């Protein structure tokens, strides 16, 4: 099942809504979400408000996205993390590559 | 129609009874004097009394007030039959309680007409009395039911005493029952939740809706669920329970363990205000959703707004009963009104706001419930994250053979079982991460002997994924064992995961988290989350201690 996405009205910002579990089983869906018809975007937001369970492969997938879109996209945000998920992102120093809120 | 004739003159009584009989009144009684009439009346309960003025023992003037007293609230017509026709005597008949009079010799037609007229009034009075009786019966029944529901209500809507010092609030119902509600609960991650809500309408109907909301809120708070999930669940519950015309406007707020990160879901409530220490309103969380209990689950949007505040900032919430309160000129207070009060007195508590409100209304009775809540951003060290955690030391052991490794995804289920059975909701995400990393390592590297280096590139990730699926599908041997020991007192989970694979050399593990590499992050992450990590049995067994 593909992940929910939302483009801003000017088409420049893409928000991807991740589900409750963000792990290796999402590798194809997640890749599709950030590569399918994204020519016009310059900003990506990963919305983790539903996400309770995340592992290191999800971190790897986020870094892959960063690397793949790094030249096109100037702003990478991760927003609305649950407190425990935030802790994991911070342990992995993801605040150095993503704006986390 | 029962009529009593009171006259000391036998002939007069005969004439009157004859007349009544002619008019069709057959249920008639007679008495010779006031005294006899009184005792007879108390027994036969007449509907109308014809009485003479002058009689021995007790005359008509003395009898009339006694009869009226006996009749109580129901109109008992007294018609005097007077021998005299001076104005003073006739007036006296009415003053002592008589309702009408005829003078002797009486006109038959006139007397009959008067009897009919008074009988009609008597009937009306009887009906009204019966209706009043029914009405007060129903009123008593409703009051009694209200008392019962109020009792349940008070018990259901208790506020965690620990949070009373943290959140300042007041609820003032307009009637017996609040359409408004306020709930607050500690979260297992060390923060807190609160809810300000307003059911359409007042009274029992809204009270009934409040009960499942309170219950759901409490359960979900205990589990540390997201506002999103809370809003979705409450919406679905109310959608199922409430009639179409009823719904529930609500603000859901989660404050995280830092005490100053604010999540808000506002559906149909007035703005939730954030005020800084200088008294300025720096943020208005306005309603972005429809109220709860309206939209079908598939249409429902639970998007949450997040804001990072400063310590000392104040979050101020209120129901529409506050902004819609009217002054003597009929002018509503509005958002601007309350914001002005807050700016004029940046430290005011809810008691001050409430008294401002009373002053503004100028003694006019409130039409709607009023709820005011103030949370001041502060460190939440006093919130006990493990207030509900189990005291029992428990050990869980799983042995997963190759069939199970293929067919199930055991970690989510295991984490759900542990966190719900032991009430460790606050740490479920981290326990998941730890267990999942160890389990995936055991399966991927121990059993399937996959090489992480494949994951260097984006394509490699997919290749790895496909290879994993393939190898798993054809797996015909291998075993992973998981053992988890919960030490309640130390709040410690000792986790051991071992696999039947060849093992590996743990010294090759990355020591730090390299942000440029998209793999090799698992065990370093576990190490950060746990107090200790050791490998044994040639690397095929790993033990960690997770401290809550």
UniProtKB/TrEMBL annotation, chain A:
What is this protein's name?
Answer: Anti-anti-sigma factor
Domain of life, per lineage: Bacteria
What are the STAS domain coordinates in residue numbering? 14-101
InterPro entries xrefs:
STAS_dom, STAS_dom_sf
PROSITE patterns in UniProt: STAS
Q: From the Swiss-Prot or TrEMBL record, what is one GO molecular function term?
A: anti-sigma factor antagonist activity
UniProtKB/TrEMBL annotation, chain B:
Keyword Phosphoprotein belongs to the record: yes
Q: Please give the PROSITE patterns that the UniProt record associates with this protein.
A: RESPONSE_REGULATORY
- Residue positions of the PTM 4-aspartylphosphate? 52
- Could you read off the lineage of the organism from its UniProt record? Bacteria, Pseudomonadati, Pseudomonadota, Gammaproteobacteria, Alteromonadales
| Domain Response regulatory residues, every copy | 2-119
Which InterPro entries would you find in this protein's record? Bact_Sigma-Reg, CheY-like_superfamily, HATPase_C_sf, PPM-type-like_dom_sf, PPM-type_phosphatase-like_dom, Sig_transdc_resp-reg_receiver
Enumerate the Pfam families for this protein: Response_reg, SpoIIE
Name of the protein in question: Fused response regulator/phosphatase
Instruction: Give GO MF terms, alphabetically.
Output: phosphatase activity
Which organism does this sequence originate in? Paraglaciecola hydrolytica
Q: Which GO terms describe its biological process?
A: phosphorelay signal transduction system
Keyword vocabulary terms for this entry: Hydrolase, Phosphoprotein
Entry's SUPFAM superfamilies? ATPase domain of HSP90 chaperone/DNA topoisomerase II/histidine kinase (SSF55874), CheY-like (SSF52172), PP2C-like (SSF81606)
Q: Which domain of life is it from?
A: Bacteria
